[in-house]
Hints:
- This protein is mainly α.
- The chain is built from 6 helices and 2 strands; from the N terminus they run ααβαααβα.
- It has helices at 10-33, 53-63, 73-76, 80-84, 86-89, 99-107, and strands at 70-71, 97-98.
Amino acid sequence: MTSAFHSIPNFELRSVALLAALTVGAALVAHAQGTAPGTPSTQSASPQSGPPSQEVGAAFIRADANKDGKLSRQEAARFPAVEQRFDQIDTNKDSHVSREEFEIALKS
Length: 108
């Protein structure tokens, strides 16, 4: 009597064993970090913190095509989330988004 185990080629058995070991290892690492497998790890920042201000500043500078220190509607179009909420983000209603307004919007 032959078992089904012996009919699987050694290469496939090793592949399955390697995949199982990698999966278990990934699950253990994710558990140790406090996240579920396949989900991005969270930083120890508050939920309202948003992206780091250095990245926000660099994004603002890249979008400010005419370098006037504020974003027009056309310049804000580079950021769909900002473009969609432009009127909300423009809290002083001057038809432009200042860097401060931009940073506040990205943190919320």
